[in-house]
Every structure is written in C-alpha cells, then in structure tokens.
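Supplementary Methods, section 5.1.

A reviewer requested that the exact input to the structure prediction be made available. We therefore reproduce it here, unchanged from the version used in the analyses.
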Amino acid sequence: MGDALSADATGGAGGTSGAGGTGEAGGIGGIEATEGASAAIVEYDGERFTLPVDRPFQIGREGDLVVDDNPYLHRRVLQIDRDRQFWWLSNVGSRIAATLSDSESGMQAWLRPGAHMPLIFHRTLVVFTAGPCTYSVTVWNDQPIWRDWTGNPATSGVTTRGSITLTESQRQLIVALAEPLLRHQTSGVTQILPNASAATRLGWTLTKFNRKLDNVCDKLDRFGVDGLRGGPGALATQRRARLVEYAVSTGLVTPVDLQLLELPPGQVD
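The structure derived from this sequence is encoded token-by-token as follows.
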C-alpha cells in the first residue's frame, strides 16, 4: 500500500490551510513552490489537452473534457486551475469522490466533493466512478514539485509502504472487481463488475462473495483507508468503486494478479 495523503491537508472541503500550512518559501507541507509557471497536460482516452493558465479546465459530462454522457456523471465533476504557483485539482461535484495517485512515490489521496489538492507530481492518475463506469484521467506536470519530508527529491522504490496483508481469496475478490481496469492500463473509461458477475467469474456463491467483500472493506477501513464506510457500522454504497480505485492506484493489486482468476475455486482459502 502506498502512503496516503488526505485532502484535508490542503483544505478539506474547500479550505486552503491545514497540516503544514503555507511555508515562508511558498510551499505547502512537503511541497516546494518553483519559480515560473509550469505547463500541464490532461490525457484521456488517447487525447491530450493543454491546461489554460487563465481559467479553470473543467471535466465531466460537459466542459473542456467531456468524458462521457453517462447520466450518473455530474455535468462538471473535476476542475483544474492555476493558483499561487500550483496547479490545483478541485472536486466540484456533489456525490462523486476521486482517487489520486503517483506511482513513483506511492502516494495516494481520496478527494471528496468540495475538496481540492495541488497537483505536485510529474504524473498524477485520477480515477473516479459514476454509476457502472470508472474513468481514468492522467495529468502531466512538466515541473513536478514534490519533495519528501526530509527535503530530498522523491525517487522510485524508496518510499516507505504499509503492510496490508490479504489472503489469496481476498486478493482474488479485488482482482475480479478490478479486472476491466487492470486490463485497461491507459486513461479512459472501464466498468467495475457487479457483485453477481464477479462472484460467477470466481465460481463463488453471491453470499460468499458479499461476506468476503465485507471482510476486505472492514480490514482496509481499520487500516485507515477512507471511503469504505458510510458511517459507524454502515458500509458505503460506493465501497466497490472506492475499493477498486484504491487497490489499483496503490498497487495493492496489479495486472500480474490477473492470473488469480484462473485458479480453480477450491484451490484458494
């Protein structure tokens, strides 16, 4: 599991102060501002869009990047703009959360509706789900400004990672749900399998599948993963989407794990 960033660290539901605050050098927490304006590009389904510096870039069912005509998708769900030497991603929707991740540092964050975060990495993967569809958008920044907490440039392979241990059947369950996303490694749209379809894919009963899904969500919730519970004792209705987004963005499951889907039903725990 990668290290987790909280949207609350950059203002929670729309604020701009929080953990670390804004430093004297213009940084925020472990972030260092750089001189001069950086260029940024949004990539989706093979198309690239250069971000304007003088107005927000809007993503949704309408806007600068129309990802889909899915009626479950907000007209505008995400917005990127330039402010105080940083590119900021804001969740301007009311119901849909997004998962942000960086593969090199292992960092990931959950962006709730109303929250915003600076885009500080060279490549930020943004994943969100509306109804049956999951969307992957990549943001490229030509001046990545992330620094780790010691002030050193982040490098691949040295980030401290957590130790979530999954049983083989728990990993199978996640892979079954995430199979379309794992097979579709570029930005674009995929679908998360319904529980019944994923259970059939594994040769399980729906009762067994739902029980193991409860167990996996409860385990990750205890590990501090946001979005898997709607409240005390009540599992969130969108937990499957959040589970898949988190597992894929942090490398908890990878395309290599697709081989687990070929194991006979009685061969795993």
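The longest helix spans residues 206-222. These observations are discussed further in the main text.
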